[in-house]
Amino acid sequence: MARAPRIKHYHAPGRVNLIGEHTDYNAGFVMPIAIAVGCDIRVGSIRKKEIRLTSRQFPGDLSYPIDSIAGMSKTGTWADYVLGVAQQILALGLELKPMHLAIDSSVPTGGGLSSSAALEVSGALALLGDNEVTKLELAQLCQRAEREFVGMPCGIMDQYASVFGEAHKAIMLDCRSNTHKLAPIPDGAEVVVVNSMVKHELGSSAYRDRVAECHQALSHFPGKTALRDVTLGELERAASKMEEIPLARARHVILEDLRVENFFAAAEDNDLPLMGKLMVESHRSLQHDYEVSCVELDSLVDTALTIDGVYGARMTGGGFGGCTVNLVDPKDVDRFENEIIARYQAQWNLTPAVYRFTPSAGARRVE
After folding, report:
1. Residue range(s) in the chain whose domain bears CATH number 3.30.70.890
2. Are 32 and 159 spatial neighbours (Cβ–Cβ below 8 Å)?
3. 352, 194 contact by CB (below 8 A)
4. Is 158 a catalytic residue?
5. Least C-beta-crowded within 10 Å: which of 27, 85, 243, 272?
């Protein structure tokens, strides 16, 4: 009796960024961790020359003839994250085989935990099959899919963290060289993420606006290729010639890069108070200079900072809703969860979701 073929199973994690927000597309520094929730894809063979997609989260079957994928434009559906990856694989001169991708994601959508990158990376592993690419090529392929097909001018942080994540470690990624260093999360802290359960609609358009405003700020510094190259002194000398908004955006990026470097050093030194202080400074900069926070996120941060055992709190992700990330003493996590839920419910009549994350391994085939 013939043995049934083994179903191939691929997993790619979401991510939480501890510090370094909106610096990745300015060639700067970020410090994410990969997290236990992610996107799982099981691959089945089919005869018809198409890519068939089903999702536990979205009803219905979607099918796309392989011969049509290279010339496709985005559909405006969740499938675009997979189709964009498929298009990039074809652009590399690699073959797509007919297959059915059964998708199941545990990453909350719209929470800033990178559900899209988890789908892209797991989708790329599934579609590549036995074709081999390096880890960096995998991350870059998925970033190109989001930029060129989906149309979001993102940096590489989300895809890189999903590919390169390591258990028990945070990644300090240099978004220019696409290299990273690893830092431990001190034993005296737990990473607790709080989902505000709101996502304001202007998020994606405002993201594009911020990218444009950073380019506008950079135009005041001939010879510089990214805001990462501008020093605080150079910004101060140019300030009188700059409009208020590009000046504020540049100030955030320049200081945020410094905060990431200091946060990395503090993690190596086991200096939790300094790590927490830098997180709060990051949030205030995102709130006032970069203007990507919202009242719900601000209230979560402000509330967290009044609870015993919290070292620091900040919004994480693109902004305008989504999540905050908090460093909390492990013995105080239960109390933190109860208080943050009760006080947020009382203020907004919403129940926030609370997640406890430890840094997890990156994308892989599941045996």
Report:
1. 186-356
2. no
3. yes
4. yes
5. 243
Task: Decide: pTM greater than 0.85.
Answer: yes
From 40, 158, 257, 289, active-site residue: 158
What are the angstrom distances between the C-alpha of 313 and each of 33, 65, 224, 287, 297? 16, 47, 32, 13, 10
Q: Which CATH architecture has domain 8-183?
A: 2-Layer Sandwich (3.30)
Q: Residue 224, SS3?
A: coil
Per-residue pLDDT tens over the stretch 20-54: 999 999 999 999 999 999 999 999 999 999 999 99
Q: Say if CB 51 and CB 127 are below 8 A apart.
A: yes
CATH fold for domain 186-356: Alpha-Beta Plaits (3.30.70)
- How large is the average pLDDT for residues 85-98? 97
Give the per-residue SS3 of 129-165: CCCCCCHHHHHHHHHHHHHHHHCCCCCCHHHHHHHHC
Residue-wise pLDDT for 259-314, tens only, equals 999 999 999 999 999 999 999 999 999 999 999 999 999 999 999 999 999 999 99
Nearest 5°: CA angle at 196, between 357 and 281? 75
User: What does DSSP say about strands 310-316 and 190-199: parallel, antiparallel, or unpaired?
Assistant: unpaired
CA-wise closest residue to 45 among 8, 70, 13, 82: 8
